[in-house]
Amino acid sequence: MTYSNSRSKLDSATIDHDNNVFNVEGVKVYYGGLLALLDVYLKIPAKQIIAFIGPSGCGKSTLLRCFNRMNDLIPGAKVEGRLNYRDHNIYDPKVNSVKLRRQIGMVFQRPNPFPKSIYENISFGPRANGYKGNIDELVEDSLRRAAIWDEVKDKLKEKGTALSGGQQQRLCIARAIAMKPDVLLMDEPCSALDPISSRQVEELCLELKQQYTIIMVTHNMQQAFRIADFTAFFNTETDEHGKRRGKLVEFNSTVQMFNFPQTKEAEDYISGRFG
Ligand SMILES: Nc1ncnc2c1ncn2[C@@H]1O[C@H](COP(=O)(O)OP(=O)(O)OP(=O)(O)O)[C@@H](O)[C@H]1O
After folding, report:
1. 92-104 per-position pLDDT tens digit
2. 246 CB under 6 A from ligand 1?
3. Is the ipTM of this complex over 0.90?
4. Could you tell me the distance, in angstroms and rounded to a whole number, from the CA of residue 31 to the centre of ligand 1?
5. Cα–ligand 1 centroid distance for 49 (angstroms)
6. Is 144 buried (19+), middle (13-18) or exposed (0-12) by CB count in 10 A?
């Protein structure tokens, strides 16, 4: 498979080290004592789309969940190392993980609207957090930013779950945006969507990156190539006891990664020789 160089604007994508949202310093993750992800060192630049790619079980979702401490909710999961979000270690015991998740929102693989109206799907979180502004305006603004306003503006009282899968996913993105986050984490957000809905979500991500940093796990290499400014490639290795664990192999601008991978592992994966 070849990846065309049509994205010339991204050829110059370089990491601006003064403008990192996250600095991951030696993060390891265990599940019930088993090491699932080896020490990761990674800097995530602001207002860019970063794709996490790699074969199944290499720790992409595990690392994604570290960025807003979602692994805290998994019994037996343990995170070691330092993960700085704008110069503060989010694994400091003093950090309020609920507040953190307001700043670092998450969109899941399967659209998961609340079983409530479209309006309430957006208004619920901000209201629960004591939002003092005009809630109607917030609902409209969030739905507009998620490029779904025109499709739902005449049925805001209808159930969010009655929308199509692609619309539900954009509703969930609108719900995340309504919390005024800084970062959006997306775990395979298009895997349950048809190609047209996937492209709509991709277009939306390209719009949203003007305001937000987006980190996205994807199995779709073309999708990573189309929209990501930077790509992190993960793989698995086997320890001396035969246990598999994930590791970050390479992080680079997407154009570099897809056209001039620095490692044989990344080259083999990208060219479809494994995974
Ligand atoms: N909740 C959990 N409990 C125990 N082990 C887990 C849990 N979640 C993930 N793991 C293990 O951690 C490793 C990494 O899993 P993870 O889901 O992060 O990989 P991934 O690269 O996102 O995979 P995929 O592409 O298949 O979604 C795997 O060996 C997996 O079995």
Report:
1. 999 999 999 999 9
2. yes
3. yes
4. 9
5. 22
6. middle
